[in-house]
């Protein structure tokens, strides 16, 4: 939590501070409200959510009978409610009926899939769960090697196929290995070439189908780079059309001043942000929590 606060407050460029300074002005005139709106838009909160938030703030901060409410409290409450407190953000890492949990990790190249798989594996191992990694991003030899390095670092088995081999067959082997060894969780890294939507759809569809011959997929995590803004959001939408995404991992929040993207992506895709990436290191991942996130934004 401390790390979340440090990393976010460093990168958010004082979104919270800027907003609070504006909201604390003696007179909240139309110009000030416009500045508040611009600040929220710059943080990628999105047009409709920004308008709704400003309306709520205007309503609640109206000075009545000399009693002005504390802007920080009001802003905090409204931001938390915008980010959402009623979503189930647990990652389903274990299976039922003696099956391993199967977590499929999808997203465009460079979003941080492989790193996310490594970081999740590390957390699970620390919780005494057994883990197998499936290197189904067979199109990039580097991706397979990178996953193998994570496997060594974290101390878990990595199932890999021949370079350029069939991703579905690697996914199948990884889950088979997990089933046969009574492993708790199989994490499957996938390829993310978005140039060819039909091809990707075929590939991910096949990966999911062959896995489910052995064990149900318990979670499909879409990895999204927070620094890519609207473009990332469009790509995310394509993935959510291809597979039933159950949760979002928002990476590189440490390098982005656009934490507001959390609000937009949840709205666009209708699934919660479950984890956030806060750096390249093995421990730079945190479960997403609305109140902690807003507190980090507000500094
Ligand atoms: P993939 O192609 O989706 O598998 O992406 P990778 O896992 O290879 O990550 C791409 C680059 O982003 C690598 O250099 C990672 O170290 C970096 N990266 C991944 N997650 C984060 C994060 O949360 N913060 C930062 N700063 N870098 C990250």
Strand content: 5-15%
Radius of gyration: 21 Å
> What's the pLDDT, averaged over the residues?
89
**Sheet of most strands:** 8 strands, mixed
Q: Order of SSEs, N→C?
A: HHHHHEHEHEHEHEHEHEEH
Shape: elongated
Specify the helix fraction band.
Answer: 40-55%
Strands of the largest sheet, in order across it? Answer: 3-2-4-1-5-6-7-8
Derived from helix and strand composition plus strand pairing, the structural class reads alpha/beta
Poorly predicted tracts of residues: none
The rounded distance between the terminal residues' Cα atoms is 12 Å
Structure annotation, total helices: 12
By DSSP, the count of extended strands is 8
Give every kind of bound small molecule, once each.
guanosine-5'-diphosphate
Topology readout:
Blueprint: H1 2-11, H2 15-23, H3 30-42, H4 47-61, H5 71-83, E1 101-106, H6 113-126, E2 131-136, H7 141-154, E3 157-159, H8 167-180, E4 185-190, H9 197-211, E5 219-225, H10 229-242, E6 247-251, H11 261-269, E7 273-277, E8 285-287, H12 290-298
Parallel strand pairs: 1-4, 1-5, 2-3, 2-4, 5-6, 6-7
Antiparallel strand pairs: 7-8
The structure holds guanosine-5'-diphosphate.
């Amino acid at each position: 939590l401390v790390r979340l606060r440090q990393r976010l407050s460093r990168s958010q460029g004082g979104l919270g501070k800027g907003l609070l300074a504006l909201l604390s002005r003696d007179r909240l005139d139309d110009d000030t409200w416009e500045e508040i709106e611009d600040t929220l838009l710059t943080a990628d909160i999105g047009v409709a959510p920004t308008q709704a938030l400003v309306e709520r703030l205007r309503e609640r901060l109206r000075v009545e009978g000399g009693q002005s409410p504390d802007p920080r409290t009001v802003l905090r409450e409204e931001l938390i409610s915008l980010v959402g407190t009623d979503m189930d953000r647990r990652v389903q890492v274990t299976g039922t009926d003696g099956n391993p949990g199967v977590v499929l990790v999808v997203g465009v190249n460079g979003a941080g899939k492989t790193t996310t798989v490594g970081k999740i594996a590390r957390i699970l191992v620390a919780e005494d769960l057994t883990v197998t990694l499936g290197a189904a991003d067979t199109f990039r030899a580097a991706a397979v090697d990178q996953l193998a390095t994570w496997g060594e670092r974290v101390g878990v088995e990595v199932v890999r196929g021949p370079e350029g081999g069939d991703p579905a067959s690697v996914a199948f082997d990884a889950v088979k290995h997990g089933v046969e060894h009574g492993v708790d969780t199989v994490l499957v890294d996938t390829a993310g070439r978005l140039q060819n939507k039909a091809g990707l759809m075929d590939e991910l569809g096949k990966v999911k189908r062959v896995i489910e011959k052995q064990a149900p997929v318990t979670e499909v995590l879409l990895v999204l780079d927070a620094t890519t803004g609207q473009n990332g959001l469009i790509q995310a939408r394509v993935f959510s059309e291809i597979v039933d995404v159950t949760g979002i991992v928002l990476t590189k929040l440490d390098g982005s001043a656009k934490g507001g993207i959390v609000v937009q992506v949840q709205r666009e895709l209708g699934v919660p942000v479950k984890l956030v990436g806060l750096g390249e290191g093995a421990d730079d991942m945190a479960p997403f929590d609305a109140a902690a996130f807003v507190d980090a934004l507000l500094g």
